[in-house]
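Exercise: predict the structure of this protein bound to alpha-D-ribofuranose.
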Amino acid sequence: MAKIAVIGICGNSTFMTVDHFHQNGETLKADSIFTELGGKGINQAVAAKRFGAEVSFLGAAGADCINSCKEFTTKNAINGFWVKKENENTASAFILTDKNGENRVTVYRGAELCIDDVEIFEDEIKSSDVLLLQNEVPEAVNEKAIEIANESNVKVILNPAPARTLKKELCDKIYLVVPNEQEKEFIGDAVLENCITTLGSKGCLVNGEIIPAIKTNVVDTTGAGDTFCGVLAVCIAEGMDLKTSCVRAVTASGLSVSKKHVIDSIPKREEVERRMKNE
Ligand code: ATP
Ligand code: RIB
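Solution:
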């Protein structure tokens, strides 16, 4: 079985649906409210688990949420490695979704991992096929994890979200960077050599070829990129080539946008394979 190590955040995500996004000075009425645990890291861990991998997750939480975080990883059969940050608030996100399923996300990163925390995860990284990272943890934490992965020839996949500068030296140590279009533009082509770009409703770009998105009824695109990255990591870990991996990641993320919120929208492998056979 493929083994994936994920480092990232996990905290409360509060969703509100609105007709449209704010104009300057406008106050909006929300039509619904919903809260679940989320964060790019934990979403990607769930996506990788549902696609059939053994998954380990390293995250930090404050006393306000650590028990819920631990229960969440246990319930989802993910090996949770949790660092309790006694006097800090856990990460939190506010997500507005409009009538077209598009979103506006604001994240408070809250209780953060530090470099020393990566030590408890060292054996997990070394025994994994892929280390999956995002930019919701401090850069120094990602750098430390990448160093450990490189020592053991573990492939690193970085979803550079939210966008921040990516040093060329660091990029050279990463097997694949998976930005969306805005993140790609921010980082720049000069840095990004090993790159798969997600293109929203257009699908994704791999080695100059577009893998088209599946046709679906769009309800909520939040977490589509996370589903893409989690599934892609498992396919790479299983030894599939990039194009074959992208077809699966595009199908899984396409299925995820047809359902509300994130965790419940992430499909299981069987659903992805069924959809691929039907097309
Ligand atoms: P998010 O931040 O909302 O998680 P993202 O910006 O990281 O997403 P996108 O490029 O928007 O990532 O989408 C990721 C993948 O999800 C796409 O490559 C595509 O396969 C799928 N997807 C997104 N939007 C749609 C859509 N409208 N229809 C079908 N598939 C979609
Ligand atoms: O990618 C979607 C995720 O980004 C949400 O779950 C939210 O928590 C933010 O971190």
